[in-house]
Automatic annotation (TrEMBL):
Matching Gene3D superfamilies: Carboxypeptidase-like, regulatory domain, Zn peptidases
Organism lineage: Eukaryota, Metazoa, Ecdysozoa, Arthropoda, Hexapoda
Catalytic site positions: E482 (proton donor/acceptor)
GO CC annotation: extracellular space
Biased composition (Low complexity): 53-62
Protein name: Peptidase M14 domain-containing protein
Gene Ontology process terms (BP): peptide metabolic process; protein processing
Compositional bias segments (type: Polar residues): 139-150
Keyword presence, Protease: yes
Membrane-crossing segments per the record: 20-41
Domain Peptidase M14: 219-512
Organism: Macrosiphum euphorbiae (potato aphid)
Transmembrane as UniProt keyword: yes
Keywords linked to the UniProt accession: Carboxypeptidase, Glycoprotein, Hydrolase, Membrane, Metal-binding, Protease, Transmembrane, Transmembrane helix, Zinc
GO molecular-function terms, A-Z: metallocarboxypeptidase activity; zinc ion binding
Length: 646
């Protein structure tokens, strides 16, 4: 018998209910399974997020108060962490390889495209030789929380990430007013050097129209042509250059200095200042021309070469192309030896006119050297190169020795406490030069130099040299760079000389980013100006800037930093320097008061350098001298030797 219609409808309804119930049960089972497997992932994510936040908090504490990372400020070793875009694979090595393979631009003076392929996105860096990283460093890299020590973080557009975004506090990368000023800013008129008054409205369109391609010929430029080139450059590249004068020569010529940096008018806190000084002897003309080509090369390369961009974004480069413009005007091209043009207009050798640590220098100060001394006292330079000619060698301090009758014959080295660093700096230049590192004598009867470097006093001692003054008085590490066997070679030699020195000139400046740097602050976070610092065992000290900054070039190793501040408790901190990037070390000093609640004035420790309260350097206590006729004979012989060899 066939079922009734009502029975059939009930059966169909029961079937639908069963299917629906089965679907609901299946959905619940699937959801439960997903939740079960997702729970560990969620917990792991929370743990990961907590770890990242903890890393970020720890990193901010390291940047702003290194003391918190030590055992009660007792000096535990602090090791800077490694980030993937620091050049553990040094971009300069790729730069060197590129030049060796002949891939540099064929157009002389044009911007290079060295890193277009190798270094453009940074990915190839990670695929090449990398140091072994510990777990903490790996975690910091993957989390992105690691501090930026050497190469800055960039957005895809190339702009630096704001400091308060990267670090959480606006301390590390703030721009502040410079030691020179715009002529129209009366509030800073007494604060330092004035920017060239011809900058802008008085010097712009007509000269630029005549030089649309911005080419610098390989020829010697007299004072007027050099001035025109520098002003043209400052007009054409106002965001990368600033031109100022530190004083005038005996005959009234400006001693022009050009700053090349992405912050030419403002000091970027935490970024070092470096300098080149050329043409100190007026007849040693190669350095003068190479400085003009270096300026052009840097500004042309900034937008296309990541390494040059990094250098200018993180360094302020001051270039003094001619310290002796009067001498250059009377020197003659083609004269490889002799003294015509060597001296200033009053007949003084400017490289014998600085205060000397070893002997009293009684020579009357000259306008050119006085200007450089004041300049060096106003700006805390970390690294410097003095460019000379007449030999092919990189010479490092000391240039002088304690007086000895036979010092010129014995050629005894006079080594600094930082001898390892100075040898490294000299080798950095010579090894990147195709022939200097070979140490071949320029001509018969002249000395050879092992690896193309020499201690200054071992070559021949001199009194009143600029590189010893920089180091002893202000802690600035300067190396004397002798660039050509002929002091004033023919114009045809200039392209070759530029190509030989270009790589060395760039890589030498980058050495300012080696060692240790940081800030000295009080317990309230205020910078301490003119705090005295010294690396234990290296008795040449250095001081902090008005913003509490300090820098010191050091090779990899473990060191102890001694810090003294007037009215503060002295402190010592251990730290480690690694090869890949400079170590960031911040110091907090605590005030020290007597029982009567007055500040205690801590005795200043003995360093080589001493400063007058007004900033004028006073000669330190002189070592015992051999007086009388023997000293006069020695000085006369030294002058004869120096005129022979530069």
């Amino acid at each position: 018998m066939a079922p009734s219609t009502a029975t059939t409808c009930r059966a169909r309804a029961d079937g639908r209910r069963s299917h629906l119930l089965l679907s609901v049960r299946t959905l619940i089972a699937i959801t439960t399974a997903v939740a079960f497997f997702a729970l560990p992932v969620h917990c792991q994510s929370e743990k990961r997020l907590s770890s990242i936040q903890q890393q970020q908090q720890q990193q901010q504490h390291q940047y702003y108060d290194s003391e918190e990372l030590t055992s009660g400020g007792g000096g535990e070793v602090i090791k800077s962490k490694i980030r993937p875009d620091t050049y553990s694979q040094d971009p300069a090595q790729q730069y060197e390889k590129h030049l060796q393979h002949g891939k540099q631009s064929d157009t002389v003076g044009s911007a290079s495209t060295v890193y277009g392929e190798q270094y453009g996105d940074g990915s190839s860096l990670m695929q090449q030789d990398q140091p072994m990283l510990d777990e903490e460093a790996q975690e910091s890299i993957s989390s992105g929380s690691i501090n930026n020590h050497r190469i800055p973080q960039y957005t895809r557009g190339g702009s630096p990430v704001p400091a308060d975004v990267v670090e959480g506090k606006n301390v590390g990368n703030r721009a502040v007013g410079n030691n020179y000023h715009h002529p129209g800013n009366p509030s800073s008129a007494t604060g330092g050097y004035a920017v060239d008054s011809a900058y802008g409205p008085h010097y712009s369109s007509q000269d630029l129209v005549q030089d649309q391609n911005y080419q610098l010929e390989f020829k010697y430029h007299d004072y007027d042509k050099m001035t025109k080139f520098l002003r043209t450059t400052s007009s054409r590249f106002p965001n990368l250059t600033a031109l100022y004068s530190i004083g005038k020569s005996v005959q009234g010529r400006d001693l022009w200095v050009m700053v090349v940096s992405s912050s030419p008018y403002e000091h970027m806190i935490g970024k070092p200042d470096v300098k080149y000084v050329a043409n100190m002897h007026g007849n040693e003309a190669v350095g003068r021309e190479l400085m003009l080509h270096l300026i052009q090369y840097l500004v042309n390369s900034y937008s296309v070469d990541p390494y040059i961009r990094w250098l200018l974004d993180n360094t302020r480069i001051h270039v003094l192309p001619s310290m002796n413009p009067d001498g250059f005007e009377v020197a003659r091209e083609g004269q490889c030896d002799g003294g015509q043009g060597r001296y200033n207009a009053r007949g003084f050798d400017l490289n014998r006119n600085f205060p000397d640590y070893f002997k009293q220098n009684n020579k009357r100060g000259q306008p050119e050297t006085d200007a450089v001394k004041e300049w060096t006292s106003k700006i805390q330079f970390v690294l410097s190169g003095g460019l000379h000619g007449g030999a092919l060698v990189a010479s490092y301090p000391f240039d002088n020795t304690p007086n000895s009758m036979f010092q010129s014959y014995t050629s005894t080295p006079s080594l600094t406490p930082d001898d390892d660093v100075f040898k490294h700096l000299a080798l950095t230049y010579s090894r990147n030069h195709p022939t200097m590192n070979q140490g071949v004598a320029c001509k018969a009867g002249t000395p050879t130099f092992n690896n193309g470097i020499t201690n200054g006093a071992a070559w021949y001692p001199l009194t009143g040299g600029m590189q010893d003054f920089n180091y002893v008085w202000y802690g600035c590490m300067e190396v004397t760079l002798e660039l050509s066997c002929c002091k004033y070679p023919s114009t045809s030699e200039l392209p070759k000389l530029w190509e030989e020195n270009r790589l060395s000139l760039v890589k030498f400046l980058a050495e300012a980013h080696r060692g240790v740097h940081g800030f000295v602050m009080d317990e309230h976070g205020n910078p301490i100006e003119k705090a005295s610092l010294k690396i234990k065992g290296r008795d040449v000290g250095f001081q902090t800037t008005k913003y509490g900054e300090f820098w010191r070039i050091l090779l990899p190793g473990v060191y102890k930093l001694e810090i003294y501040g007037d009215g503060y408790i002295p402190k010592e901190m251990d730290f480690m320097v690694v090869e890949q990037h400079p170590t960031l070390l911040n110091v907090t000093l605590h005030t020290s008061k007597r029982q009567d609640n007055t500040p205690y004035r801590q005795p200043v420790p003995h360093f080589y350098h001493h400063h007058h309260p007004q900033g004028i350097a006073l000669a330190p206590k002189q070592p015992t001298q051999d007086p009388g006729i023997f000293s006069s004979i020695t000085s006369g012989f030294n002058n004869f030797v120096s005129n022979m060899f530069g």
